[in-house]
Amino acid sequence: MATSNISDTFRKAEETDIERIWQIIGQAKAQMQRLGSQQWDESYPAIEHIRQDIQDGNGYVICREDRVVAYGVISFDGEPVYKEIEGKWSNDLPYVIVHRLAIADEMKQQGMAKQFMLQAEEVSRKKGVYNFRVDTKYDNTYMLRLIDTLGFRYCGEVYYRNNSARKAFEKTIRPHSHPIGISGYTIREATLMDAVPIFEAIDKDREDLRIWLPFVDSLKSAVDEERFLQSVLAVPYEQRDPVYILEQGETICGLAGFHFSDAPNHRTEIGYWLLPAYRGKGIITHAVRYLCQWAVCKRNINRIQIRCAVENHPSNAIPKRLGFTLEGTERDGELLVSGEYVDTNVYSILKKEVESWNRKSN
User: Fold this and answer.
1) What is the separation, in whole angstroms, between the first and last Cα of the chain?
2) Under a CB-based contact definition with an 8 Å cutoff, are residues 113 and 83 in contact?
3) Residue in 144, 34, 133 with CA at minimum distance from that of residue 82
4) In angstroms, rounded to a whole number, what is the distance separating the alpha carbons of residues 309 and 213?
5) Tens digits of per-residue pLDDT, 179-200?
């Protein structure tokens, strides 16, 4: 995976890199000694740690002109000492951590450490993990400065071998936004940090939304939305039913996402809602089209279903516009907050039909 500098390459470390990595580790230890930092010592990290990192698939390098110039560990295995933090993490969701980051002397002061951390974020995004945690000694001024630059938040102290205290930090990795085909509007996966703005958006138009969305009445605070997002994000990415935010700039317009997925049968369902101010622009149509293509390409989904209350004409217009097939009507398929049961139309589209969209556009 190429970085912003065309001559730099970011990749997993290999056994043949060990000698060069060990040189860089030695340079880093020598610098720490000169600066009086106790971040690392003679016994840590040892070359056995590097070998194990590579065997575990957690070691990564940046190469410039095929020469290794940076090394670090990117791990999703958790850090045991983080369970005993003197302070508090913001949540208990899975996280990525970077350890043993070292930069070759000739690459110091060139942004290489920041580049490595940003690449770690990319690795984490691909796994659907949006929590990033790190720790460092109080005297590691370079790392502390880097952590601050990258927007981490201080959470407390953790303790390693010899009862050594370190400052612990975390940040939320923002998922990438993707265009949906309407200028200024994008779609991205929601994170825990979105709980407050999502709640506020719903709360502002609660009376309108609750007509067709029974869940609105049970959403009484941002904590309720946070619990919902936490339940979604706690599921491993390959099995997760992602929730997506529709945005204009950084303003929430609505939500769309998957539910009731059935992996063995390669089927899923899409739901959506949009705030009144953004209706009539084709936003949901474009968003559902994006999600259908994502489901087919990334999850190998064969059948995508949408259910709409019969009288909710704007909602029914979405699957009709996209070429879904109306398969039938469920009698009393949904109970609204009014206490009334309403019939729901069931629409579906198949993988081969979604794939035909691209053939027609070409």
Assistant:
1) 28
2) no
3) 133
4) 10
5) 999 999 999 999 999 999 999 9
